[in-house]
Every structure is written in structure tokens, then in C-alpha cells.
Amino acid sequence: MLGALVLTATACGGGKDSGEGAGEGKGKGSEKAVTQQSKAVVTIAPKDGAKAVKTSGALEVTAAEGKLTEVKVEDTKGRQIAGTITGGGASWTPSTHLAAATTYKVHAVAKDSAGLTSAAESSFTTLTPQNTFIGNFTPEDGSTVGVGMPFSVRFTRGITHPADVEKAITIKTEPAVEVRGHWFGNDRLDFRPEEYWKAGTKVTVNLNLDGVEGRSGVYGKQSKTVSFTIGRSQVSTVDAKTHKMVVKRDGKVVKTIPVTAGKPGYDTWNGTMVISERLAVTRMNGETVGYGGEYDIKDVPHAMRLTDSGTFIHGNYWGGGAFGNYNASHGCVGLRDVRGGWDKSAPASWFFNNSMLGDVVVVKNSHDRTVAPDNGLNGWNMSWAEWTK
């Protein structure tokens, strides 16, 4: 039994040559297992934990002794910030501004010349602005409008950084068409295509204004998506000389209506105008448009606004024999109607019920000048070259 135990122990321990071989092999294996470290160094600005970070110009990721291969920036809701790697992998910058009062996490990876990678992470929070602005827009989300309707934004504060604000508003259309913006002063920005919209076009606008510095120390606080659809095409042409209006629907004449335009001294604007407001009944007072007490009509039916300065196309029940014969208004375009607007067969009632916001009304052969492009939604009176200048 003792001999058997000794023999077993010797067999389990192995011989002298076997032990030395195992020891040498183990030593060499340990040397090969040493992990090589990447030479690439990733730097993230702002520093981890930074507060009150500016929404533009502060975020940048760089790599030394290597090239950036991945940069991911997202807020606490998982919304990512797009960006671009430049300089052959030396740096990354965001393609847009950051939202205000928001915490972001940054994860970046770089690779050195040997193919070894290194990574860095950071978290920071953007500033909370003391002064803000929004943009009041037309048309409304979900609406169907005529082919002349621009997307118009009127800002609550004057904008001194227009390029940054305009960049934050993106428009996509189906079918695709080029849409460009034009500033009227420093508080209004309108967008339109070169020609009238095509009927049936679907338009989606992304107002990514949250965090945009519109003027020094004043930041946007709006993040909204607006969609609207272009309805059928309707363009109506008023001839102030013949006192008639021709209504075309999808290029075909559907009705010719006798009208009365502005009388001498109160001539109607010439040019292309867009219906921007519809009122079944309204009050028209000459004092509101600089005509003193020349008129005050409390129950004007079927009124549709064409300019901010007070030009309407509306029902008229006091015009007598003017319709189709002579111009008798204070600058508006009048169509025969009845007091209260109850007669659905009246021309004004028909036109009101067959029109929508964004429809086009063109006035020609009047003795006044062409309406200003910013007097209402009337940017169509500018050439495309002027619009995009």
C-alpha cells in the first residue's frame, strides 16, 4: 500500500523535465497577455459636469495621436445631436445648436495608427435663459390651404442673428420642391417656393428654435413640428377696368363675377394678394385705415382679408348698380350681397363658401401701385431673384 501511494504521488507531480517545460511555457504566456494601450487621446469640451454651457460654440470633441471614429451626443430623452467629423478625424462639431436648460451626455471613440481604440465620456448642462422669444406662425398645424399660402413666422423679439434663426427652421415637402426664406424687417420670416405650390403638396415644418440665440442674450424656447396640406388651386383675377372677376379652379374658369373696386382717390392695390383671414360678418370703420369718419359699417358680410392695411374682398349690400359697371369702394373689392349674408345665391356668398385661406386674388388695371410684398402674405410680388437675395 505504501509503495502504491508513493507511485501515485510521483505520477501526479510529473518528472523533472515535465515541470521545467510547464514553467517556461507559463512565463512566456504571461508576457503575451499584457494589454497594449491606445496612444489616441480623446478630449471633450465642455468638461464633465459643466453647468450653464452656451447652446452654440461650446461643444467640441477632438482627438490627438489618433482619429475619431464615433461621437454620440444625446439628451436625457435619448434625442441625438447630429454632427460632423472633420480634419481627417481630428475633431467633431455639432451640426446644430443645443437646447437650453438640457443635460447632454457625450461618448466619443478614437483609434490610433496601430488600430487600438480609446474612449471618453462627459456630461454637461446648457444654460437657462433669462430672456426668450417665440415665433407666431401661419398657417395652423393640420390645416388645408390655398396654393398661395407662404409659411410665415412673426417673432416676439427683433432678431439680430437672422442666419442662426433661419437655419433652425427646416421645411420638407412631398413632392419635393425648393423652399426659401425671406426676411421682412427683423421680426418676420416668410418661406415659399418659386411658383405657387402644386395642389396636394404636403408641407412639414420643424421649428427647432429652443436654444437659438436670436439676439444677444435672448434665446428661442420653441420646439414644434407643423404640417399643412395644399388644397386645390384657385386663382381669381379682378380687372378694375372691366369691373369683373374671373375665378379659375385648377386652371379652368368656374365663374365670372361682377365687382366694384376702389373709386378714384381710393384705388385698390394692383398685384398678387393672398387671402389671410375669413370673417362671415365684420365691422369696417374708416377710422382704422386713415379715412376718418367716412364710413362705419357694422355688418359687412363674407369678408376676406387681402392686406394688413385693410384691403378686403367682401360682400356689399349698399353698392346699388356699381357691380360690373363702375368702381365705388374705398379700396376694397366688393361683390353683390344682402344684409346679413343670408342669400346663398348672392355672388359674395358663393365666393366666400368656395374660397379658403391661401387662395390667390390678383388685381390688375387699377390706378394704384403694386401692393408691398410685406403688406399681408403677399411676397409673390417679388421676383425669385429678389426673394432669394
Automatic annotation (TrEMBL):
InterPro entries: Big_10, LD-transpeptidase, LD_TPept_cat_dom, Transpep_catalytic_dom. SUPFAM superfamilies: L,D-transpeptidase catalytic domain-like (SSF141523). GO terms for cellular component: extracellular region. GO terms for molecular function: acyltransferase activity; peptidoglycan L,D-transpeptidase activity. Keywords: Acyltransferase, Cell membrane, Cell shape, Cell wall biogenesis/degradation, Lipoprotein, Membrane, Palmitate, Peptidoglycan synthesis, Signal, Transferase. Residues 15-34 are annotated as: Disordered. CDD domains: LDT_IgD_like_2, YkuD_like. GO terms for biological process: cell wall organization; peptidoglycan-protein cross-linking; regulation of cell shape. This is Lipoprotein. It comes from Streptomyces nodosus.
